[in-house]
Design goal:
By secondary structure, the protein is mainly beta. Helix content is about 5%, strand content about 45%. It has one helix and nine strands, in the order βββαββββββ. The strands form two sheets. Strands 1, 2, 3, 4 and 9 form a five-stranded antiparallel beta sheet that branches.
Length: about 140
């Protein structure tokens, strides 16, 4: 039975807005330790108490997944701060690094002089649907 510190292997398919966003199919099961924060909290809660062979289908609200969209995670930067901005469009992803950390942001607006970047996780604000089969529990 899945409980704190269990070593768990699952096969899963993640669907967001009706489209498959991720799956373990073709890659082998995802392995994690229950309670260690290695998977989103909502999925950990849904798997608690289940056992090998169980199959579940569950919707995880944004607050228990990647959080709601944070308005503070939008930044206006000068166009000159982004390389190749002339070839980019709204919806494109840009990368940056500062102080040894790498960041990814989605371009949400381009004006004459500025670019608005969204640093939220791409799945922030989304309900996640998981179909999961528990492969093993140790």
């Amino acid at each position: 039975m899945i409980q704190k510190d269990s070593k768990v292997a699952i096969d899963y398919t993640l669907t967001v807005d009706g489209k498959v966003a991720d799956t373990s199919k073709g890659r082998g099961p995802l392995e994690y330790t229950q309670g260690a924060g290695q998977i989103i909290i909502g999925l950990e809660h849904a798997l608690e108490g289940k056992q090998a062979g169980d199959k579940i289908s569950v919707d995880i609200p944004a607050k228990d997944a990647y959080g709601e969209v944070n308005k503070e995670a939008f930044r206006r930067v000068p166009k000159t701060a982004i390389q190749n901005i002339e070839q980019m469009k709204v919806g494109d992803i840009v990368g940056a690094s500062a102080n040894g950390h790498t960041f990814r942001a989605k371009i949400t607006e381009i004006t004459e002089t500025e670019v608005v970047l969204d640093f939220n996780h791409p799945l922030a604000g989304k309900t996640l649907h998981f179909d999961v089969e528990i492969v093993s529990v140790k």
